[in-house]
Design a protein that fits this description.
42% of the residues lie in helices and 22% in strands. By secondary structure, the chain is an alpha/beta fold. The strands form two sheets. A five-stranded parallel β-sheet has the order 2-7-1-8-9, with helices on both faces. A four-stranded mixed β-sheet has the order 4-3-6-5. One of its GO terms (cellular component) is cytosol.
Length: 188
């Protein structure tokens, strides 16, 4: 089997990281890309597991050297990017590879890897998305307002994706995602 890239994207606070963590813990056959970011770690985040935390200078050097599959400034603040090398290696090994990224990153990947499977993770409702963002408690009121405005725009992009998964239950959403990944794996 040839590996296939799956891109999981959706609005802020929809639970992309939670779904990806569930897949990491319960489906070891799926390789999960670890993004780089210039933002500081949130409580409980581990460098190299949740993200590779780097400074602006290192991030900019990697971007200039073409080392990212995609990269962007998110919410007008921190830089995020997907290192290209590990993704290429996982696919060459025939692995199912998962990128958990934001909408702008997904759009960049679509231009360079249109054969990937693009999955949109949506909340069960707008009110639930707001509850999750506020309940996270990791952003200031101003940051929450910026993220919610971004989320409104991101939700409108659902039609750009091949598949949609509703995150009303992490286990169910994760299993649906993995089922989609397996059904779309390419034979050699």
């Amino acid at each position: 089997m040839t590996g296939r890239l799956t891109v999981l994207a959706g609005p802020t606070a929809v639970g992309k990281g939670t779904v990806a963590a569930y897949v990491r813990a319960h489906v070891p056959s799926v390789w999960l890309s670890v993004s780089m970011t210039t933002r500081p770690p949130r409580p409980g985040e581990v460098d190299g597991v949740h993200y590779h935390f780097v400074d602006d200078e290192e991030f900019d050097r990697l971007a200039a050297d073409g080392e990212f599959l995609e990269h962007a400034v998110v919410h007008g603040r921190a830089k995020y990017g997907t290192p290209r090398g590990p993704v290429d290696r996982a696919l060459a090994e025939g692995r199912l590879a998962l990128l958990e990224i934001d909408l702008q990153g997904a759009r960049q990947v679509r231009t360079t890897m249109p054969e990937a499977l693009f999955v949109f993770l949506q909340p069960p409702s707008w009110d639930e998305l707001v509850r999750r963002l506020v309940g996270r408690g990791t952003e200031t009121q101003e940051e929450r307002e910026v993220r919610l405005e971004t989320a409104r725009r991101e939700l409108a992009a659902v039609e750009e994706f091949d598949e949609v998964v509703t995150n009303d239950d992490v286990r169910r959403a994760s299993e649906h995602l993995v089922s989609l990944m397996r059904s779309r794996q390419r034979p050699d």
